[in-house]
From TrEMBL:
Listed GO biological process terms: RNA modification
Name by which UniProt lists this protein: Pentatricopeptide repeat-containing protein
Keyword Repeat in annotation: yes
PPR-type repeats, residues: 15-49
Entries under Pfam families matching the protein: PPR (PF01535)
Coiled coil: none
Keywords, alphabetical: Repeat
Keyword Repeat appears in the UniProt entry: yes
Length: 170
């Protein structure tokens, strides 16, 4: 990262992509504090910048800080995408925070967000890990092509709760 930082410092023009790449590089290398400093120094951020920082916190075991940044992102009306929702739903599942997970789900509904398999899988995962298998199953059954929802979401948590895999009949 030292070489990357040297090149960054020598650049005359630094666009949002360059800043985001540096943030992501520090976060991936485990230097999350430095990544955060650079993120906060960024003169302009785009949704990818925010996602890079959220992903960095998640990767470094700081899900609670990632979720705070997500809350700030929504308060600032930053455009949210499938990856942002998926990362945050996974974090809420990790913390067994059904209330906040439901808030994201409600946001998806209110904004008519067209959920893809990544978001649907994350919703199924969040609800099942938070112990609400009824909602997990309901969301799963509303998917047109159930084979598109990754298998790890279908079976992992149902077996943890003593249910057989046929719970997710395909």
């Amino acid at each position: 990262m030292t070489d990357a930082r040297r090149v960054f410092d020598e650049m005359e023009v630094k666009d949002v992509l360059v800043w985001t790449t540096l943030v992501s590089g520090y976060a991936r290398s485990g230097y999350i504090n430095r990544a955060s400093e650079i993120f906060h120094e960024m003169p302009v951020k785009n949704p990818i910048s925010w996602i890079a920082m959220i992903a960095g916190y998640m990767r470094n075991g700081l899900s609670n800080i990632a979720l705070k940044l997500f809350s700030r992102m929504t308060a600032l009306w930053i455009l949210l995408d499938q990856f942002t929702f998926s990362r945050c739903l996974c974090a809420y599942a990790r913390f067994d925070d059904l209330k906040r997970g439901k808030q994201i789900h409600a946001h998806l509904i209110r904004t008519n967000f067209r959920a893809n398999t990544i978001v649907v899988g994350s919703l199924v995962d969040m609800y099942s890990k938070c112990g609400n298998l009824g909602y997990a199953q309901l969301i799963f059954y509303r998917v047109n092509d159930k084979k598109e929802v990754p298998g790890r979401f279908r079976f992992q948590d149902s077996t943890e709760y003593g249910l057989v895999p046929k719970f997710w009949n395909l």
